[in-house]
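Because showing beats explaining, we think one record worth quoting, sequence and backbone structure tokens together, and here it is:
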Amino acid sequence: MKKFFTVFILIAALLFSSCSGGANKELQKAEFNTKTIDRIVINKSGYPGRYVIINNDSINNFKNTLVKSSNASVNTKLKPDFTFELYSDIKKVGTFKY
């Protein structure tokens, strides 16, 4: 299970980094990097389970990948495959759909 989780995170990181065209200005303006994120919940559509990231190093790597991502230039009719929810304590800080 741990190996599967690690592979999943690596694939998600590669997908985000390959789609980046510079830093996401909206996230930088919101001072996203300075907020304390305690956990990240990853939901895959069509799958009942979810993944929770609580390791600080993994959370920082994931946040850095999100900041480097860019917004979609074309609005497609496709539904997102993944939903990433970021939490600080019990408060939801942000939600990203991919």
User: Anything to note?
Assistant: The CA atoms of residues 14 and 87 lie 23 Å apart. The longest helix spans residues 2-18. The chain has one domain: 2-97.
